[in-house]
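Fill-in record for Galactitol permease IIC component.
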Amino acid sequence: MQSVVDYILSLGATIFVPIVLFIVGLAFRLSVLRAIKAAVTVGVGFLGLNLVVSLIGDYLSPSVQTMVDRFGLNLSVIDLGSGTSAGIAFSTTVGALIIPIIFGLNVLLLISKLTKTMNIDIFNYSHYALTGSVVALITSNLFYGIMAAISHAIFSLIVADLTAKKVQKVIGIEGISISQGFATSTVPFYALMDKIFNKIPALNNRKIDTNFIQKKFGMFGDPVIIGVILGVIIAILASTSFVDGSQLVIVITGIMILFPRVIRIIVEGLMPISDAAKKFFQTKFKGKEFFIGLDSAVTLGHPTTITVGILIIPITLVLAAILPGNKVLPLADLAFAPFFICMATIMHKGDVIRTLISSTFYMVLVLYIATFFSSYYTDLAGAGGFIESAGGTEVSALYIGNVFNFIITILMRMEVLGFIVLALFIIVLYYFVFKKINRKEEPEKTS
């Protein structure tokens, strides 16, 4: 089983995701050539996305490291990053079992009409695997670990269904939802923050998005100018040379420009499959709604996400330095900051100020949860051969600073009692969520 998982992971998102989309396209009766074109186009989009993300790692990371050294951040737990975390998650027994279990469960829930989302984002099953692996480690019980992973997957499907229409409206892609295990875990917090903002006179009934900023401040709201300003600020904080600082400005501006264009390529590939899915369900299931569950990467083209995503990098470093009790030094995962805050853009409808405030508060949670899990994460990393077990250095990742992960783990530490509470909570959540969804759909049915 582990060898199968390793082989799937070795394909990479640029190969595996197009293969899955090609099969999905054929299932929805696209012609072979159209299915190939759609799938490969998405693969090219992900290739471009990886190249843009690598710019963040290659050029921002040295500046971040310089900032860390310059301000003397003395933190004892090292952030190993998302890629290593996914590898650790899939290296465990739970991780080896979780792909077929979660995929099969998703199909069953779809057939049973308990979800509208088919999560094809196989790579990010690692979030569920990591939750289950931590619980299995704490309880020394494989069954509890698998149940924890399943619970995380179910929570993600529920949130994906609830937010699908908002996602589609904000980013302009029909027929999709975001089912990624970290992104979905941020939604309850951002939804709560949005309600709080609605009570604040200065933030209520105003939408301060990038279009508003551009109209209000002219060229200062242009993505290129925003990129230049952000690049200059980070270069000053890192005290770079003129050449390095200039290069940083160009790279950050390039990210502001390239992300939206790369996402358009992914959208171009997804649209034929989305349209085919609609026709298929209208014909076979009397218009039953269906969403393709995707990675949160498809949200990164929004200018608010990119702007706030870059701003949150120095903010996270400051938070790490000043928060009492935090032990995690953010490093490897800082390049993926836009992924951590992307659903804030969705829940706040692209409002820059709301997104920035919410994201800042959320990163506080991420740092504390990553600190909480550090000893368990270190044990898993050592067992999987990702670090030397000797030496006493603790490791963690912002990737594991996941609210669903934290809640599920706290409950499952109580073993039988926690499992019962978690199961009852899922049942009650399903009841209220589907009641809400059906109530929203009722006017459409009766019109």
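KEY FINDING: The chain has a mean pLDDT of 81.
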